[in-house]
Amino acid sequence: MIEASALFTLPVLGALFAGVLAGLIGGALPGINGITTLTLLLPFVLTLDPAVALTLLLASHSVVYTGGAITAITFAIPGTPPNAAALEDGHRLAKLGLAARAIAIAATASGIGGVLGFFVLLAAIPLALPILQTVGAPEIFVAALVGLICVARIAATSFEKGLIPAALGIFLGSVGYQDASGVPRLWFEQTPLLDGIGLIPLIVGLFAGPELVRLAKLRPGEAVMSHDRHFEQIGQGVRDVLARPALVLKSASVGSVVGLVPGIGGEVAAFLAHAWFGRPKRHRSEIDDRITGVVAAETSNNAKEGGALVPTLTLGIPGSAGMAIMIGALVLLGFQPGPALMAEQTGLVILLAFVLAISNVAGSVLVLAFAPAFLLLIRTPVRTLVPVVVTLAVIGIVAYRGSTYDLVIAAAALALGMGLVRYDYSRAALLLGFILAPFVETYGAISYAAYGVSFLWRPSVLVLAALLLAFVVPWNSIIQRMRGTP
Amino acid sequence: MTPNARRGFPLFALLFSLAAAASAVPAAACSAEDCFRGKTISLVVGYGAGGGYDAYARLIAPDLERLTGATVVVRNRPGAGGLIALNEMARAPGDGLTLGVVNVTAAVVAQGLGVEAVRFDIGKFSWLAGIGSEQRALVTAADASTLPWKSPKAASQPVRWAAGGQTDEMAINAALLSESLGLRARIVTGYKGSNEAVLGVVRGEADAVMISADSARQYADARAIKVAALVSSSRSPFFPDVPTIFEAAAGADLGGDWIRLLTGLSALGRGLAATPGTPDDLVAHLRTALGKILTDNEFLRRAKAAERNVDYQSPNDLAGAVASTLATVKRQPEFRHVVLEKYY
Predict the structure, then answer these.
(1) CA–CA separation, B181 vs B85, rounded Å?
(2) Which residues of A fall within a CB distance of 8 Å from B84?
(3) Torsion angles phi and psi, residue B41, rounded to 5
(4) Are B231 and B137 in contact (CB under 8 A)?
């Protein structure tokens, strides 16, 4: 029997700190995501005391997305796939000379999101089963569909600058095995394409690629990005997040709910929150728009893990891929996740909930403290920086799923990215289509196979659709753009 | 022809014949101790690090190093449900240096269905050992009072099974069991993995799902679902109260061939293979080494500690089972129709 008070013992606090450090570093290194970090740590912790071992694992897992935002913002290489949602906005801020502010925004939003996820965890434990039974394939279908509709609001300049790349994204998302049938599509006899186009090579090619080309063209000695007054910027970044409580709450709820529903990846939480709440608005400055985007994406992906712990601990059903490894660790340490765990090891469950909250806060504070030091890297001369970043990008791409073929995909994505940048089409819209379209397709197919068309009349579907159509879809801008008014 | 080339010819011919002779001799001559010494054996796993197949490979690797003197490297080549690794093995040279931990059931099914991406002939692999198979469990929602096809609802509506893609084990087992029982059934596909499929059952999107008994054990305490039957001829010590499918379906006609195919496919389980064309003496050395490892008490203790069930099957038994199941699949003209069309 583990008591929650074990949190205040030296080994557990030490494990928490070590886990946070490991998670931040693993997150910031492209190609090492939360799953890899957990898998690397797992063999070492099995000989430890269970409370210490589980604290170390959960602490590292809680902050990988916090660390992953750093490379997304500075180099346009997402440290982990969910960080891709904040990439375009965050990197744009960095190019405007606001790298420190953007990192501070991401770190603060991540920390607050994680803590809100903790409250959701505490509140939702007794409701785990009803929630699981209510949010099913039809509801996921509607949520993803509305996310796709929001593409209309993405491109700041014109309707088709968002719509065309979104359609291209949907097309690219349909390469490989169709989830619902297992039949491969558009694979051109190339076996690596069977599992579809990888998210990381696509993102690195689309976003980091054109950026590297730009850097490579700079004259030696020319500044990579302007950077000054880091400490001021960091304070400003923290205030930016605190000044947007409604946005933070909305994004955290999206993250937590996505976390509660097992099987949906972290990138969906971040992209949905970004699509729903993080889009540009008329009569708002570009910087404001970009900040909104970073806050929405980074809050939701950290809030997600609080939600994901609920089914993991209460039902023994992992809420995310990382949580599947947590379940493995629990079993190897002699616990059986499920209702029995809740009843017999209440202390452990409470301990884990607090570890989640504290490590999120600690992760944010560490990033805020060390951001200026990290940003010194950007002062590195271009001829040193470019090879380093290219190496990072290549490692990230190959490590993602152990395939060198993904370098070819990244190269193709780079060419595509250059074209999109040149003609001012939205790369974010392309990613949104790429990520959400398979969800619309798969969960639409499951809903139809399970219920026939009647799934559209389920009360929960109608309520969700009404709420989303009323509050999320940008009717004003859609109508204005269709009329062609500026 | 230039004088130079003419002068070079006999030397080249001599070298060539020496090389040919050299390559012909050692295949028969190396002893168990020095065939692999100083070489590197790749143990290919068709799934990602951290999964079940990966765990077996990493358990076996150190002992295989000790017994062969080779360096053994576990290589994860995930993708396309293990097909990418199998295709790669089929292309690798038959030199005994590329081995694989293979999902034999999935490989036989993919080949039997003529899945597009298959570039291998599973019958040509050199089988080294069977590691064991897992029983299949039929899982329903906890509030289902009876087996899905016995419920009052089944009279008016087809039984809905949850599965991933049409060719994954959940879908194939559901199709074969439905065919065995003559059920009116429908397979709901699209779930990513057994966890999400189980969740589909919890949400009421499907009535039942067939998953491995190992995965089912993980849910044994989950209050939302229950294990309703095991696809096996005898009860499992892990689920003493759960009936076998034969007990549960007592009185029903189990459609002979189909239930045999279902149990036969499940029994193939996991196997270790060398690439096609590996010389007999190398195969023999590897078989001896792996036979020793998989029956060694210390190895079995480590496997048990890692929650991995090892049930050694001799290479000849495994090769025989692969050949006969593949033949049954090919002989059964309805197989493709039943698996890919009938229940969708």
Answers:
(1) 35
(2) 191-192, 194
(3) -100, 130
(4) yes
